[in-house]
């Protein structure tokens, strides 16, 4: 699946301030290396249906075997191993025989830092290798998924080096000369195997993290389907970052692959789009999704147009940036492989008439792409009315209750049809903006400052 920076930002995957966001919600890694692997995985999910299915089976497996995750490997363990091997080129051969015994006493008495570094680093390497050994014990399980089996067999091969057993057998009673010699050999013979083991462990850490987050939040695994026929059927899908989310049922598929969404400002359209995008992304990561049920065909990518920004350095206006983003979406939709396109309130950077005409033109073009799933939201109900008889478009709207006296209530309920709610002026009134401006004008007239 393909994702770009704008889509990741629109879906709040990696917030700019580093706090919250989808990443924080699913990050249950135990090491920084695992955290980095999880980030890379989100940036580049599996690129075909078969790999995604294999990964989902692996994450499901971890969800049932989280008690098998080794507790002796910490982030400190991984950091220590990197420091240990980074200093390998500066290490000379240790003394032998009687000289080694003298060196032992000398190091302990006069070079405590080197003495304890040797013991401490080999102790961490001991923990890491034993943890990897525990993981490979899962190979005896007849139900182990093929992807996990491959990773653990690779790990097992690197554990076959003769030095690994020596390191796993060290204890507090192991004399320093033996440790010193073992350190020397390890740095020269085990560096590449241990680095491969660390890479393997980081991937496993990312996978168990997604399984752990799925269990913790009570999410369900999506039913994954091939690319065609393109569809997304969701029951009870919701936005996972909301404290009290509203859930929705969605049926998108061939013949009804384009939804036109209407409703007043702040009625829930943007949150709904984000819920669809986030759920689809999580399904394509192989983990659980915030929905009772989700069926989705494999998507080549998710692309959004929600919060476009102008570019002052390039001299680009907000409207031009919107047009460029829409051009990119058009390019993606020209491909046969399915995408999920989510577009929110297009052409906000121009006047209402132009926005209406541009949105109508885009809608006319979107209906000609049956191989993709598309949702377009707008508060310009004139656009929806023009296409109201087009059977290729699904029309849904968010209900806003407007009472006598100008009071309104957002229900966040999604219904079939087209909304013609207009509450912008009501919101301006209720927030007291108009009254404040008039009061300020009268005060200026009274004091003479308005002259």
Protein traits:
12 strands, single chain, Rossmann fold, 51% helix, alpha/beta, 451 residues, 2 domains, 4-stranded mixed β-sheet
Q: Could you walk me through the main structural features you see in this protein, from its secondary elements to its overall organization?
A:
The structure is a single chain. This protein is an alpha/beta fold. It folds into two domains: 31-217, no CATH class; 220-420, 3-Layer(aba) Sandwich (Rossmann fold). 51% of the residues lie in helices and 15% in strands. The strands form three sheets. Strands 8-9-10-5-11-12 form a six-stranded mixed β-sheet, sandwiched between helices. Helix 3 packs across helix 11 and helix 7 runs antiparallel to helix 8. It is elongated and about 90 Å long. The termini are far apart.
Do you know the CATH architecture of the largest domain? 3-Layer(aba) Sandwich
SS element count, helices: 17
Our measurement of the CA-to-CA distance between the termini, rounded to an integer number of angstroms, reads 62 Å
Mean pLDDT: 87
Oligomer: single chain
Share in β-strands:
5-15%
The major sheet is characterized as: 6 strands, mixed
Report the strand count: 12
Q: Topology as H/E string?
A: HHHHHHHHHHHEEEEEHEEEHEHEHEEHH
């Amino acid at each position: 699946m393909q994702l770009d920076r704008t889509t990741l930002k629109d879906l709040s995957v990696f917030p700019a301030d580093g706090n919250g966001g989808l990443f924080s919600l699913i990050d249950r890694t135990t090491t920084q290396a695992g955290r980095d692997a999880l980030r890379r995985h989100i940036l580049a999910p599996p690129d075909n249906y078969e790999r995604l299915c294999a990964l989902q089976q692996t994450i499901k497996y971890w969800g049932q075997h989280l008690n098998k995750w080794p507790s002796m490997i910490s982030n400190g363990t991984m950091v220590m191993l990197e420091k240990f091997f980074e200093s390998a080129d500066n290490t000379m051969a240790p003394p032998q025989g009687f000289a080694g015994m003298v060196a032992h006493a000398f190091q302990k008495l006069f070079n405590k830092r080197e003495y304890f570094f040797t013991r401490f680093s080999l102790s961490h390497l001991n923990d890491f290798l034993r943890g990897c050994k525990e993981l490979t014990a899962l190979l005896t399980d007849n139900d182990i998924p093929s992807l996990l089996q491959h990773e653990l067999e690779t790990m097992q091969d690197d554990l076959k080096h003769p030095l690994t057993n020596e390191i796993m057998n060290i204890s507090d009673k192991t004399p320093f000369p033996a440790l010193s010699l073992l350190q020397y050999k390890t740095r020269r013979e085990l560096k590449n195997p241990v680095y491969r083991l660390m890479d393997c462990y980081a991937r496993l850490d990312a996978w168990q993290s997604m399984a752990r987050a799925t269990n913790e939040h009570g999410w369900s695994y999506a039913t994954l389907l091939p690319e065609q026929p393109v569809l997304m059927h969701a029951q009870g899908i919701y936005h996972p970052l909301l404290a009290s989310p509203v859930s929705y049922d969605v049926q998108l598929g061939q013949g009804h692959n384009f939804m036109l969404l209407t409703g007043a400002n702040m009625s829930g359209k943007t949150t709904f789009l984000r819920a669809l995008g986030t759920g689809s992304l999580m399904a394509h990561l192989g983990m659980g999704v915030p929905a009772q049920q989700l069926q989705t065909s494999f998507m080549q990518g998710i692309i959004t147009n929600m919060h476009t920004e102008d570019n002052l350095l390039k001299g680009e206006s907000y409207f031009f940036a919107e047009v460029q983003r829409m051009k990119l979406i058009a390019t993606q939709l020209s491909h046969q492989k399915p995408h999920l396109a989510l577009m929110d309130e297009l052409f906000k950077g121009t006047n209402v008439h132009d926005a209406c005409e541009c949105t109508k033109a885009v809608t006319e073009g979107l209906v000609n792409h049956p191989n993709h799933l598309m949702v377009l939201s707008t508060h310009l109900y004139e656009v929806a009315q023009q296409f109201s008889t087009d059977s290729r478009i699904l029309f849904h709207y968010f209900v806003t209750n407007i009472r006598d006296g100008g009071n309104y209530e957002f229900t966040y309920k999604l219904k079939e049809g087209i909304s013609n709610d207009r509450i912008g002026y009501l919101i301006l009134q209720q927030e007291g903006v108009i009254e404040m401006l008039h009061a300020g004008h009268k005060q200026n007239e009274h004091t003479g400052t308005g002259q």
